Amino acid sequence: MKKIISVLSLPLAIAQLATAQQKFSISGTVTGQAPARYYLQYNNGEKYVTDSAAVINGRFKFEGTLPQTTPGVFSAALSKGLSGDRKEQAYLFLEPKAMTITVQNGDLSTTVLKGSVSNEDNMRLEKEKEAATAQYKPLLEALRNEKDHEKSAAIREQLAPYFETNSRLSRKFIREHHDAFLSLYLMRFEVGSMSLDSAKYYFNGLNTALKQSKDGQQIAKEIKQLEDGSPGSTAFNFSKKDINGQPLALADFRGKYVLLDFWASWCVPCRAGNPHLLELYKQYKDKGFEIISISDDDRNHDAWKKAVEKDGIGVWKHVLRGLDMEKRMKNLPNPDDTSDHFGIHSLPTQILIDPKGIIIARYGGGGEEHEAMDKKLKEVLGN
């Protein structure tokens, strides 16, 4: 595993394609033992809606308005979070039209929504992903229940191959379905782990309406951020307090080659790469080379400081990325988030900046990237 996705999109956080409200309805039928009520949660483009419908003689109905297709959660009972248990919740793609739902014996894993093309697309894709999904579910449950920081990191590492398998299937769908809403939805998840060229390729393949939608505009913004953090661009001049509470600005290091190391204490491949960074720092620190590690540990300062001490990397500079999770959840601007300015969505990522402040290389943190970084540093700083 070379990378860990640092921030994932939320299932219900996707914006709407348009703003004009249109009516939708869902007529439901349930056989066998059924709850007294079913619940439907979705974003109608103006607010987050939680609706409920009473079950009478095995039938129920939801009605509302949507600007266009949107993901939603159908459940038998409300909970504080999305459990992911298909017997308790079903993820659906709602469209502004008349739809039907059937549930067998009150088991939500049997839920079938008809009348939504996007939902049918998603069901076919989920069928292709079943093998990997079935294998990683126990790991996801273990991750939810694990309180130990380092054990959680190890579980994330085990999950990575399954996520990569599903990611390949998602990208295949996007390539083959340029007009599908689901392709746009999947892009929100995939763009963070794509290279700049790949992101442009997949995005440019979508039809014009999807690209011009609110979500399309958001994806375009993320691609622009990735471009701003890629070779040829001038590096964003951030200012922070370092791990010791001292002021630090990227501009202070003009005249040096600077490696920005985006990492986290919980990121297994990041920690595994630290010995290599230590070797590079020892080799080049007296030749005009500096490392600034930017940690994704804003919510756990103790873990950040312990990792720096344990890995012996306190010899170079350390700052936090500046993530404000409350702002992110509300989709509000977070200008202090350094990762956003460099288009960082996966860890580890390293960005090499020349003495004039221009980005000259970007690396994903794996073994072959280490070799490329070594070659580049040897080229610019000598043997």
Automatic annotation (TrEMBL):
<dbReference type="InterPro" id="IPR050553">
    <property type="entry name" value="Thioredoxin_ResA/DsbE_sf"/>
</dbReference>
<feature type="domain" description="Thioredoxin">
    <location>
        <begin position="229"/>
        <end position="382"/>
    </location>
</feature>
<keyword id="KW-1015">Disulfide bond</keyword>
<dbReference type="InterPro" id="IPR036249">
    <property type="entry name" value="Thioredoxin-like_sf"/>
</dbReference>
<dbReference type="InterPro" id="IPR025380">
    <property type="entry name" value="DUF4369"/>
</dbReference>
<dbReference type="Pfam" id="PF14289">
    <property type="entry name" value="DUF4369"/>
</dbReference>
<dbReference type="InterPro" id="IPR000866">
    <property type="entry name" value="AhpC/TSA"/>
</dbReference>
<keyword id="KW-0732">Signal</keyword>
<keyword id="KW-0676">Redox-active center</keyword>
<dbReference type="InterPro" id="IPR013766">
    <property type="entry name" value="Thioredoxin_domain"/>
</dbReference>
<dbReference type="Pfam" id="PF00578">
    <property type="entry name" value="AhpC-TSA"/>
</dbReference>
<dbReference type="InterPro" id="IPR017937">
    <property type="entry name" value="Thioredoxin_CS"/>
</dbReference>
<feature type="signal peptide">
    <location>
        <begin position="1"/>
        <end position="20"/>
    </location>
</feature>
<keyword id="KW-0201">Cytochrome c-type biogenesis</keyword>
<protein>
    <submittedName>
        <fullName>AhpC/TSA family protein</fullName>
    </submittedName>
</protein>
